[in-house]
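Objective 1b. Sequence-to-structure analysis of Serine/threonine-protein phosphatase PGAM5, mitochondrial.
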Amino acid sequence: RREPLALINHKKKNEETGEAELTSRLDHYKAKATRHIFLIRHSQYNVDGQADKDRTLTPLGREQAELTGQRLASLGVKFDQIIHSSMTRATETTEIISKHLPGVKKISTDMLREGAPIEPDPPVSHWKPEAVQYYEDGARIEAAFRNFIHRADTKQEEDSYEIYVCHANVIRYIVCRALQFPPEGWLRLSLNNGSITHLVIRPNGRVALRTLGDTGFMPPDKITRT
């Protein structure tokens, strides 16, 4: 709902200027900048933890986060912000990454917490959450997509570079939605820990996927998918 025509009150019509007036108003609502969205999957964590606070990063996970932070810093762009899931493993990953990006503000949100976005098609035998999870998590993750993945605000003059540190299910669902692929196919994608997925959103609303789950900057013995 960010197409310029959708933002205009068509009842307000200047009878004298007609099309010229419409063109002028459309220009006012057109985005001018490109948004670069970097979706980072958290690093390896302690899967045996009973509660979220116990699911902390492993020593290897901390190494992975360091490598991801170094990679992001090496890109040579000015990042505007880091928005991260409030879960422990995402928060710890963010803290390590942010050391390599001094001055970039960090924002925590519950919207990006891990969950079951939508029932996968085809189904898999090793992962069968309760049906209620799809209703609870799905609405939240869809809301996160709508809230964070969109063309630039009309007031934004320069291109932006934003980092989102969250979880595999969330990232995979967001990628499918952003590319207008059937979202039920999200589980067919696979993401390594600490991987970088880069989406580009142009002013006209077109979306491109630059990289998906990139860990080419990590030595092979540091790559995991837990």
